[in-house]
């Protein structure tokens, strides 16, 4: 079922998204984003630096936030700004659950065919909030 743009209003909750956090996800996405810090791929060196294990990098988290929003909005939604803050690390063998709620909806004076939506997001794991923040995106003003 596709998103009805006309039904977007403050308070609307996005469907949750559960993302298994695997070693492969952590390592491959760190390397794909050219983050070669050993804490993202080498268990013993991560422990030497005070972490219990390797952990996800912020670029991967940012990408997963973008995926969460575009899974909801579809290809007609255009992300304009992502403002996130990291909290508890995403370690292997855990699950991050993404939550979102529409925080504001505004008309765009320069483009009456679209509207600006701000979504408050939160991604949690077994340790607490991994990521919190907001995403601003534009969507069609009508269901077209």
User: Using DSSP, what is the number of strands?
Assistant: 5
CATH superfamily: Hotdog Thioesterase
Helical run tally: 3
User: In the CATH scheme, what's the topology name?
Assistant: Thiol Ester Dehydrase, Chain A
- Estimated structural class: alpha+beta
The outline comes out as elongated
User: What is the string of helix and strand elements?
Assistant: EHHHEEEE
Strand content: 35-45%
Which CATH-level-2 architecture?
Roll
Protein topology:
Elements: E1 17-21, H1 23-32, H2 43-48, H3 58-73, E2 78-86, E3 94-107, E4 114-125, E5 128-140
Antiparallel strand pairs: 1-3, 2-5, 3-4, 4-5
Explain this structure to me?
With 144 residues, the protein is of the alpha+beta class. It has a single domain, classed as Hotdog Thioesterase (Thiol Ester Dehydrase, Chain A). The chain is 22% helix and 37% strand. It is built from three helices and five strands, in the order βαααββββ. It has a five-stranded antiparallel β-sheet with strand order 1-3-4-5-2. The chain starts with 16 loop residues before the first strand and ends with a strand. 22% of the residues are buried. The mean pLDDT is 94.
């Amino acid at each position: 079922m596709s998103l009805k743009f006309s039904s977007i209003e403050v308070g609307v909750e996005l469907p949750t998204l559960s993302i298994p956090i695997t070693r492969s996800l952590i390592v491959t996405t760190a390397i794909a984003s050219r983050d070669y810090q050993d804490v993202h791929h080498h268990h013993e060196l991560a422990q030497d630096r005070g972490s219990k294990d390797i952990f996800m990098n912020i670029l991967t988290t940012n990408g997963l936030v973008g995926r969460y929003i575009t899974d909801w909005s579809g290809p007609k939604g255009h992300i304009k700004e992502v403002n996130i803050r990291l909290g508890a690390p995403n370690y292997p063998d855990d699950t991050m659950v993404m939550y979102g709620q529409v925080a504001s909806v505004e008309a765009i004076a320069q483009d009456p065919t679209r509207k600006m939506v701000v979504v408050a997001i939160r991604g949690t794991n077994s340790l607490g909030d991994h990521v919190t923040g907001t995403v601003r995106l534009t969507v069609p003003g009508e269901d077209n």
